[in-house]
C-alpha cells in the first residue's frame, strides 16, 4: 500500500457526522466516493470507542471492494482493529515511532503539520504523508494553529519530499490553488459532508483538481 500513496491522495473526504443533515455516514460516504473521492478519513471526536469501531467496520465494508483507502483519525487502536489502510495523527497523538511499531511497515501514517518545523520532523520520523493544517481558516476545527495559507504550502513543498495534503477551509473555489501551490491532494470536510448532494459536490471538486 505504501508504494501507491500518491494514487489515492487527490481528493480526501474527512468525515464529520454533525454536518450530514441527518443522513447516515455510510450514505454520505457512498455518494462522495461515487462522485470521485479517492480516500476517506474517519474522524470522530465525541463518540464511544464501540461506536467508532462500528463506523469504521461499516466504512471498510463499503470502501474495500471499491479500492478506496480508509484512514482512521487519531485512533491507532481502531485502525488496528479494523485493518484500516492507515492512520492520521495530530501533534499531540501517539508518536510515529510507536504507531509504526504497532501498525507495521505497510500501514500508512499521516501527520498533521501546523508549521514548517512540524513538516520537517514528520518526514524525518518516517511519516508517509503530511496533512498541512489548516491551509485556510475553517469552522470545522477550532483547535488548530493560524492558517498557513498557500505560501505555507509552498514553503513546506520546497523542504520535504513526501506527499502533502492540504486541509482546512478547502472547497470548490480554492482547491485548484492548493494543488498549484505544491500539494499532492486536498482534504475536504464541509464542502462535501454538508452538501445537498455529496456526489455532485465531489464530482465538481474532482474536476477542478484535474
Task: Explain this structure.
The chain is α/β, with parallel strands linked by helices. It has a domain of about 140 residues: TIM Barrel. Helices cover about 40% and strands about 15% of the residues. The chain has an 8-stranded parallel barrel, surrounded by 7 helices. Strand 6, helix 6 and strand 7 form a beta-alpha-beta unit. The longest helix has 15 residues. The radius of gyration is 16 Å and the shape is globular. The two termini are about 25 Å apart. About 45% of the residues are buried. The model has no long low-confidence stretch (mean pLDDT about 95). One of its GO terms (cellular component) is cytoplasm. Pathway: Cofactor biosynthesis; thiamine diphosphate biosynthesis; thiamine phosphate from 4-amino-2-methyl-5-diphosphomethylpyrimidine and 4-methyl-5-(2-phosphoethyl)-thiazole: step 1/1.
Amino acid at each position: 500500500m505504501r508504494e501507491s500513496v500518491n494514487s489515492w491522495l487527490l481528493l480526501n473526504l474527512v468525515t464529520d457526522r454533525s454536518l450530514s443533515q441527518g443522513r447516515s455516514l455510510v450514505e454520505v460516504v457512498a455518494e462522495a466516493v461515487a462522485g470521485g473521492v479517492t480516500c476517506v478519513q474517519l474522524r470522530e471526536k465525541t463518540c464511544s470507542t464501540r461506536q467508532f469501531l462500528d463506523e469504521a467496520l461499516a466504512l471498510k465494508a463499503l470502501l474495500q471492494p471499491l479500492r478506496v483507502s480508509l484512514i482512521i483519525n487519531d485512533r491507532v487502536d481502531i485502525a488496528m482493529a479494523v485493518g484500516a489502510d492507515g492512520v492520521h495523527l495530530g501533534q499531540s497523538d501517539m508518536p510515529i515511532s510507536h504507531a509504526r511499531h504497532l501498525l507495521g511497515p505497510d500501514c500508512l501514517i499521516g501527520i498533521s503539520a501546523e508549521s514548517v518545523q512540524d513538516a520537517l520532523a514528520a518526514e524525518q520520523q518516517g511519516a508517509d504523508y503530511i496533512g498541512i493544517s489548516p491551509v485556510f481558516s475553517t469552522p470545522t476545527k477550532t483547535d488548530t494553529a493560524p492558517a498557513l495559507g498557500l505560501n505555507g504550502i509552498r514553503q513546506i513543498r520546497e523542504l520535504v519530499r513526501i506527499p502533502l495534503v492540504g486541509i482546512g477551509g478547502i472547497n470548490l473555489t480554492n482547491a485548484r490553488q492548493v494543488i498549484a501551490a505544491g500539494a499532492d491532494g486536498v482534504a475536504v470536510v464541509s464542502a462535501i459532508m454538508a452538501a445537498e448532494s455529496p456526489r455532485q459536490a465531489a464530482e465538481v471538486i474532482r474536476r477542478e483538481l484535474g
